[in-house]
Design a protein that fits this description.
Structural class of chain C: alpha+beta
CATH class of the largest domain in chain A: Alpha Beta
Number of strands of chain C: 9
Low-confidence stretches of chain C: 236-240
Shape of chain A: globular
CATH architecture of the largest domain in chain A: 3-Layer(aba) Sandwich
CATH topology of the largest domain in chain A: Rossmann fold
Number of domains of chain A: 5
Strand content of chain A: 5-15%
Chains: A alpha/beta (about 575), B alpha/beta (about 725), C alpha+beta (about 240)
CATH class of the domain at 137-223 in chain C: Alpha Beta
Order of helices and strands of chain C: EEHEEEHHEHEEHEHHH
Helix content of chain C: 25-40%
CATH superfamily of the largest domain in chain A: NADH-ubiquinone oxidoreductase 51kDa subunit
Number of helices of chain C: 8
Distance between the termini of chain A: 54 Å
Largest interface: B-C, 56 and 50 residues
Number of strands of chain A: 14
Structural class of chain A: alpha/beta
Distance between the termini of chain C: 74 Å
Radius of gyration of chain A: 23 Å
Oligomer: heterotrimer
Mean pLDDT of chain A: 94
Chain lengths: ~575, ~725, ~240
């Protein structure tokens, strides 16, 4: 259909509803256009630009930034095959090859256009290999790629919950969202009721006393963050739940979002009350369609039950929460890039300082917490900081979720108190290395993490112990590699991931992720050039030292750790 | 990578903003690139399309660089335009100057001063213009000299003279970022003062200023405005007086200022009684509440300023229009302080300077009146001519000159750089006038619609081939530097004038010389400084790096950013009682639309420069802007050929269907000879300022065919229009 | 006025106005050797190129001096082996990606830091056709280092025109118009603010480019639409 004949009326009516949000309606509008037309034709982009008063070139810049938007016509059906190390170990390359073969035949036959593409981690690592077709995720997909109807591939995602503790995951494992009735029956929203009668400062004091630190990777004390924002004079203030989980190997937030959304909401409402925010967002990774459905419903339930909106539970406190879909950019997990996305811009991370608690979303004081962090709030308020601290270690109180995938007997989500050994987690709880093989390596913290070998098995899983051993806890990812694995393949996937996801703002990352990928590809192919190892180290340290945000600063972390552990991989075998 | 053989710092020759330019020049004297230093005080390194790219006209092959005389002698009443070089005979400078001298002297000796008229040039330097008026005053004892200021800001200049005794911007343009509230009226600033416009945009977007636009067009500045008062053309007095009415009724008056610094308040106040917001709404079509809001915003702002251009002044009630905003500033005391004021944005690069230099029919340099005995004596002494020798009678204005061509009236016309056959209103009438002249000398770069009528063509240099100074819109006298050698035999204007003056002086047998032996323009500016107190302290040495804002009273005076801080030149500021007067021509059944005229970003005035530049490729044809509802009613599609007809003429051009113009109003830029807007405009004048009504002629628009277009094949659709 | 901020730069104590960047504080301390690529005095600094990084005591990473404000007691070092590695590697990576032949500042820096422009063999370069789509300026994004200055001056740093923004992401980022439209089909007003701030010759006055391509001045001046128009004018007026 020529673009001049495009029917813009459905888009116009959607825009009518979105208009009051101003520029922050840009991503939602583009999602709408993408859904309506299968891509974003330029007349649709113009329509959005003029409705939202955003310059045309900036609308285009935003479309071009997010991988879920396309400015050019794309085939109707795209099969996204997860490219992360866990899926690769489960045969995603073969799966992809088979799918391409199958559909190039089918396409030729009946003209259907189905395209197979590799995708950054889909967050289904425990069910590797994983694919996504339109809005539908499938795990444990047969590598042969067999399946007549797309929906017949593999299995619907479900969660495998394990561990020594069941605080955060108490409502998980049902393979469906906990309803508000079930949640309340289990004592849900009691923490909120309690808080609403407390002084906000007392709430913050309790969270501070609990020693809760952020679970997104940076491990910043949550109470201090809340206090920082609460102290700011500027209004309005915002709270945000960072549900943009995209770290390869990580799926803990997906499970919490899909199975116990109210626990997250309760934490977020309490954060808003404590800091004086009346507007909040749940920024959800665009690909998490099941979580989107679960959270949309949970929000509806919460509004209907007087837990959101005006005069929450009869108190003076008002809060509006909005579910905001990301659009395919790993960097938006970085808090300031996430703000930019909500503001309708390219997801470029900002310079810090100023920090979000002073100048965050829309330049206003903002508290942004990870899903898992917020899930802890209910427990802290209900049991009190002192009781909460009885679990875990002195410096790492509470429980922690670990995402185990790769060559482990029982991949899944494990909740454990801080302080247990890695060995206990892998061998006692998860059944050890699959097939009784020897452990070769563990990747800690996902793509942005670092490798360790069996020598680290007895290190305790706490912030302080891991730090002492130079291992990042990150978001709680451990990907297991057995003795048969060639880590060069994993490294090249990680390198590709960063080159693919770099936002391009600062030069170290924009250029370094590409140069790193090129050298790693040579390494994986056994064709390293003289000087490549020095190049890799210079590029790696330059990214680590000089990048603007966490993405670039950690983009070389796994590679640099691998150089130390397995120097034999980095032999310059080409003259 | 290209290395320039030299770079030269100078001042832009286009608009009144006065941007600093750095010309990058190769070994062939080719200006191949223009940049601007980022510490430039006026423009901070920013330029517009003309300033950055519009200088290739210098090298255009049609540029005239040899003196020319017409092959066929021209007779009054049968004068023709010669665009073809074959109609001209190249001659030596001596021949051309002698011929010019002879013809002018002959006519002067036969018919006296009234027969002689000169057009000065707002593009030329202060020095060029000073000498041109000196030539006319001292040799032909005539005051018939004027320039395009008459056609642009005469209403502003006259009104400001009447009310405060000055005729320039009161404040500095860059102060706009310090304004709390500012009004932009009758100004398409984004296209006509692009660099001031970006400062205005920054004022709104970055510095928290509130903008009120009062304009019948939806100009780009409306995007930045809190209020847009979309008035009907010519209803300015009603709107601004209604604002004064509100300020008076709500007692938002700055009594302290009114008591201490103004006169005639009572008469003014009484005259404002009738200007209720309801009355203004009826006349202007602007919602009364917008008028009330605008009045409150302006009156209560700590620092508020008004910026305006020709939408106010180019009217048969242009003087009243400007008086109505002057009244507002006096009433609220929004003048005489930093970041306030009355700020007419001047159009041409040196229209302020040409006016200061006395290229005006009623004034000597420095606005010293020709009918003032003391002034006349002063200039007689300065110019070394006999007491009583200067003419005390007010001269003819621009439009009057080309309305008084007849035996006993104007017989000889000397045109330095102007193009009246594009810029005068009602061109059909002007054409018969210019064709009736006995002698025309043209000093220019190109054969254009006006110089094509000349008997003799004296090829002048462009701004890049001579030294001098321009005075920009905020009174800043800045250096213009010779960057390249004159092309061909072209000569700097000041040298041509001196050569001619000496010949005329000899030919007329003047006993004593008024002095024409300058070796450099700096000597001319020094002489001007001796007779114009405001320029007394301006010297080339002092403005070597950065210009000085007049008044500069002496060689140690730092210049003046903001005028009237203590007092007005006229002592007290004078309120003027006003009445609403409608436009000279109102739409009716035969001519139902109002024609507004003006300019576009890429072209410049009569377009002698821009249409000899690649600038022309960016906007190569005239377009008539018409509101979608009018277009629909008339069955006119975007880019369709249409005929626009007034009582005076008719042109064919393409339509641009756009909401940039309001319902009932069409807009045509006047740069294009092939569809000249001024064929349609009317030559009714403002009684005080003698400025014509360019902004409101009654017209009708009807569909035409592509075949009727002058060049149907040329078209450049643009994303921004 | 607020109290001045005291810091040391390479051991030199200096007192600066609050809000002063480390880069400017260093200049005030007489240290003018911190290199910059993307930074421009009249554009909003974004800390993109990172060649201006310095070490600040107590900071885990290197700190971009162009956009980090000096704070009380800060101890800044402007040249260490760690800083040199970052600057050198950045220049090498840039040289392997972009055509720096028109970027004298970058070239001079490459010499100063003994960077090897050929350090990265088999490296992907950003290669695009030269865009010659208007009479006034050309866009040669082979030479673009993504300093963002052009985008910023087209937007709030100067012109408020918003004709250009980005396409792509990461290494593939490119300065682009709405759906890659030719420049005259955009909101561009051809002010050339972008050309004025381009540090690498990626944006260039078309006349200059034409001379570099070997065209003569006469060729460059000839043939614009006015020619056609004006010729027709004289033909018309001769035979009224």
């Amino acid at each position: 259909m020529p673009e001049s004949d495009l029917d813009l009326s459905p888009l116009r009516s959607i825009l009518q509803d979105l208009l009051p949000k101003g520029r922050s309606a840009l991503l939602p509008s583009l999602h709408a256009a993408q859904d309506l037309y299968g891509y974003i034709p330029s007349p649709a982009a113009s329509e959005i630009a003029s409705a939202l008063h955003v310059p045309l070139s900036e609308v285009y810049g935003v479309i071009e930034f997010y991988s879920m938007f396309s400015s050019q016509p794309v085939s109707k059906t795209i099969i996204h095959v997860c490219n992360d190390p866990a899926c690769a170990m489960a045969g995603s390359d073969a799966l992809m090859k088979n799918l391409i073969r199958q559909y190039s035949d089918a396409n030729a036959k009946n003209g259907d256009e189905i395209v197979v593409e590799r995708a950054p981690c889909l967050g289904l690592c425990e069910m590797a290999p994983a694919i996504m077709i339109k809005d539908i995720q499938r795990g444990h997909v047969d590598a042969s790629g067999a399946g007549r109807l797309l929906e017949e591939f593999g299995e619907k995602p479900y969660s495998i919950i394990g561990g020594d503790a069941h605080e955060l995951t108490q409502n998980c494992g049902k393979h469906r969202p906990t309803t508000i009735g079930e949640y309340v029956a289990g004592g849900g929203y009691n923490a909120l009721r309690k808080v609403l009668s407390m002084d906000p400062a007392a709430v913050i004091a309790e969270v501070k006393a609990s020693g809760l630190v952020g679970r997104g990777g940076a491990a910043f004390p949550a109470g201090l963050k809340w206090e920082g924002a609460a102290k700011e004079a500027a209004r309005p203030k915002y709270v945000i739940c960072n549900a943009d989980e995209a770290e390869p190997g990580t799926f803990k937030d997906r499970v919490l979002l899909e199975e116990d959304p109210h626990r997250i909401l309760e934490g977020l409402i309490i954060a808003a009350y404590a800091t004086g925010a009346h507007q909040g967002y749940i920024f959800l990774r665009g690909e998490y369609t099941n979580a989107f459905v679960a959270m949309t419903y949970a929000l509806k339930e919460a509004y209907a039950s007087g837990l959101l909106g005006q005069n929450i539970l009869g108190s003076e406190f008002d809060l509006e929460l909005e579910l905001f879909r990301g659009a395919g950019a790993y960097v938006c997990g970085e808090e300031t890039a996430l703000f930019e996305a909500i503001e309708g811009k390219r997801g470029f991370p900002r310079m810090k300082p100023p920090f979000p608690t002073t100048k965050g979303l829309f330049g206003k004081p903002t508290v942004i917490n990870n899903v898992e962090t917020l899930s802890n709030i209910r427990s802290i308020i209900n049991m009190g900081a002192a009781e909460y601290r009885k679990t875990g270690t002195e410096k790492s109180p509470g429980t922690k979720l670990f995402c185990l995938s790769g060559d482990v007997a029982q991949p899944g989500l494990y909740e454990v108190p801080f302080g247990i050994s890695i060995r206990h987690l892998i061998y006692d709880l998860a059944g050890g290395v699959r097939g009784g093989r020897q452990l070769k390596a563990m990747l800690f913290g996902g793509a942005a993490g670092a490798f360790a070998d069996a020598a680290s098995l007895d290190v305790a899983l706490s912030f302080e112990e891991l730090r002492a051993h130079g291992l990042p806890l990150g978001s709680g990812v451990i990907t297991i590699f057995d003795e048969t694995r060639d880590l060069r393949d994993a490294l090249s996937r990680l390198a590709y991931f960063f080159a693919d996801q770099s936002c391009g703002k600062c030069y170290p990352c924009q250029l370094g992720t590409r140069r790193q990928m090129e050298i790693i590809e040579r390494m994986a192919a056994g064709k390293m050039l003289p000087g490549d190892r020095a190049r890799l180290e210079d590029v790696g340290w330059t990214m680590t030292d000089a990048s603007l945000c966490g993405l670039g600063q950690t983009a070389a972390s796994a590679v640099l750790s691998a150089i130390k552990l397995w120097p034999e991989y980095f032999v310059e075998n080409r003259s | 990578m290209l290395q320039p053989s030299k770079t030269v710092t100078t001042t832009c020759p286009y608009c009144g903003v006065g941007c600093k330019l750095e010309l990058h020049i190769d070994a062939n004297d080719f200006i191949y690139k223009v940049t601007s230093p980022f510490d430039a005080v006026v423009n901070h390194g920013n330029l517009c399309v003309k300033g950055r790219y519009g200088h290739d006209f210098i090298y255009h092959k049609d540029r005239i660089t040899t003196p020319l005389m017409r092959k066929v002698p021209q007779k009054p009443g049968a004068r023709t335009q010669a665009f073809d070089p074959a109609e001209w005979q190249p001659v030596s400078w001596d021949e051309a100057l002698d011929y010019t001298t002879d013809r002018m002297a002959e006519i002067y000796q036969r018919d006296g001063s009234p027969a002689m008229a000169f057009y000065g040039c707002a593009k030329a330097t202060n020095e060029d213009n000073y000498l041109l008026e000196k030539l006319l005053h001292t040799q032909f004892r005539s005051n018939n000299i004027d320039h395009c200021t008459r056609l642009c800001h005469a209403g502003s200049v006259v009104a400001l003279q009447m009310a405060v005794g000055s005729s320039a911007m009161s404040n500095t343009a860059a102060e706009v970022i310090e304004n709390d509230v500012f009004i932009v009226t009758g100004s398409n600033t984004a296209e006509n003062h692009p660099i001031i416009a970006i400062q205005m945009k920054a004022a709104v977007r970055k510095h928290g200023a509130t903008l009120i636009v009062v304009d019948p067009r939806r100009v780009e500045m409306v995007d930045y405005a809190t209020l847009w008062l979309a008035e009907k053309p010519g209803s300015d007095v009603a709107i601004f007086s209604a604002m004064a009415h509100v300020i008076l009724k709500e007692n938002l008056v700055n009594h302290e200022f009114v008591d201490a610094r103004t006169d005639n308040f009572a008469a003014f106040e009484a005259s404002m009684e009738k200007f209720t917001p309801e009355f203004a709404e009826q006349i202007s079509g602007v919602d009364r509440n917008l008028i009330i809001q605008a009045a409150r915003m302006y009156a209560t702002a700590p620092k508020a300023a008004i910026y305006w251009t020709l939408g106010l002044s180019e009217s048969t009630h242009g003087t009243d229009n400007v008086l109505s905003i002057i009244n507002l500033a006096l009433l609220t005391g929004q003048i005489g302080r930093r970041a306030t004021g009355l700020n007419p944005l001047r159009g041409q690069n040196n229209v302020q300077g040409a006016s200061d230099a006395g290229v005006m029919p009623w004034h000597y340099p420095g606005y010293q009146r020709v009918d003032d005995e003391k002034s006349a004596r002063k200039f007689e002494a300065a110019w070394n001519i006999e007491a009583g020798g200067l003419n005390r009678k007010l001269g003819l204005t621009t439009t009057e000159i080309l309305s008084n061509v007849r035996p006993g009236g104007v017989r000889a016309l000397y045109i330095m750089g102007e193009n009246p056959m594009m810029s005068e209103p009602n061109l059909n009438h002007t054409r018969t006038e210019i064709e009736a002249l006995e002698f025309i000398a043209a000093q220019d770069l190109f054969i254009n619609e006006s110089t094509a009528y000349a008997d003799v063509f004296l090829p002048a240099t462009s701004w890049a081939e001579k030294d001098g100074t321009f005075t920009n819109t905020d009174r800043r006298v800045q250096r213009v530097r010779q960057a390249i050698a004159p092309r061909g035999d072209a000569r700097p204007d000041w040298q041509i004038i001196c050569d001619l003056a000496k010949r005329i002086e000899r030919r007329l047998g003047r006993e004593q010389s008024s002095y024409w032996d300058y070796t450099h323009p700096s000597e001319i500016l020094s002489e001007m400084g001796r007779v114009v107190p405001e320029y007394a302290g301006v010297t080339y040495t002092r403005i070597e790096h950065e210009g000085l804002q007049t008044p500069v009273w002496d060689e140690t005076h730092p210049g003046t950013a903001d005028l009237f801080t203590e007092t007005f030149p006229s002592g007290k500021g004078k309120f003027h009682a006003l009445d609403y007067r409608p436009n000279a021509e109102s739409p009716d059944a035969d001519y139902p639309l109002v024609l507004n005229t003006g300019r576009v970003l890429e072209q410049w005035h009569g377009a002698s420069m821009t249409r000899h530049s690649h600038l022309n490729d960016l906007y190569p044809e005239a377009l008539v802007e018409i509101h979608p509802s009018d277009a629909a009613r008339l069955g006119i599609a975007d880019r369709q050929a249409v005929r626009v007809t007034s009582r005076r003429g008719s042109i064919v051009l393409r339509a641009k269907v756009t909401e940039k113009t309001t319902q009932g109003v069409v807009f045509i830029p006047f740069h294009f000879f092939e569809s000249a807007a001024n064929e349609l405009t009317l030559d009714k004048l403002d009684p005080q300022a003698k400025i014509p009504e360019y902004k409101a002629a009654a017209v009708r628009v009807s569909p035409a065919t592509d075949a009727e277009l002058f060049h149907p094949e040329i078209s450049q659709p643009r994303g921004r229009y | 006025m607020a109290d001045p901020v005291n810091l040391t730069v390479d051991g030199i104590s200096v007192s600066v106005e609050p809000g002063t960047t480390i880069l400017k504080a260093a200049l005030q301390a007489g240290i003018d050797t911190i290199p910059t690529l993307c930074y421009h005095d009249y554009c909003t600094p974004n800390g993109l190129c990172r060649v201006c990084v310095v070490e600040v005591e107590g900071s885990r990473t290197l700190i971009p001096s162009c956009c980090t404000k000096a704070t009380e007691g800060m101890k800044v070092t402007t040249r260490t082996p760690r800083i040199e590695r970052a600057r050198r590697t950045l220049l090498e990576m840039l040289a392997s990606t972009v055509d720096l032949s028109d970027a004298p500042d970058a070239q001079q820096m490459i010499t100063e830091y003994s960077a090897a422009p050929q350090r990265f063999p088999e490296a992907a370069q950003r290669r695009y056709p030269v865009l010659d789509d208007n009479p006034m300026y050309i866009r040669d994004y082979n030479k673009c280092i993504l300093c963002w200055r052009c985008v910023q001056v087209c937007a709030e740093d100067a012109q408020f025109t918003y004709a250009i923004n980005f396409s792509g992401r990461g290494f593939e980022t490119r300065i682009d118009t709405f759906y890659s439209l030719p420049i005259l089909s955009t909101t561009c007003v051809v002010c050339g603010q972008c050309v004025g701030v381009c540090p690498t010759g990626a944006l260039k006055a078309r006349r200059e480019w034409q001379l570099e391509q070997g065209q003569s001045m006469d060729e460059i001046i000839a043939a614009s639409t006015d020619d056609r128009t004006l010729r027709k004018r004289s033909a018309n007026r001769q035979q009224p």
